[in-house]
Design brief:
The protein is built from 5 helices and no strands. α1 packs antiparallel against α3, α1 packs antiparallel against α5 and α3 crosses α4. The chain is globular and about 35 Å long. The two termini are about 10 Å apart.
Amino acid sequence: MITSSILFIFLGSFMMYNTSRTALLSTNLSIEKWVQNNHLISKTIGLSFFIMASIMIIIAFGLTSGILFWFVSLILILGLLVIVSPLKIITYKHIIVLFSALFILELLF
């Protein structure tokens, strides 16, 4: 549940980052082109990802610690996204492998 909520935070951050007009954006994938061309729909989807993640985290940790965990996760992911995204070091294959491994570890432990 925590891995999926962090994935939702990442997806929401990705949507919001790609709707930015001041960021250095790439158009390597068709999903990136679609997000950049449909600002209103993408921002709505990104905000809904944030809301779903916050609800999942609040259910898992409780109200106060859930909100704090959500803010810390959001700040961490946004910082990493802003730093790593223009460098194009991490690909989508890396992200899929990382979240799959984290999900399997969460299920095992």
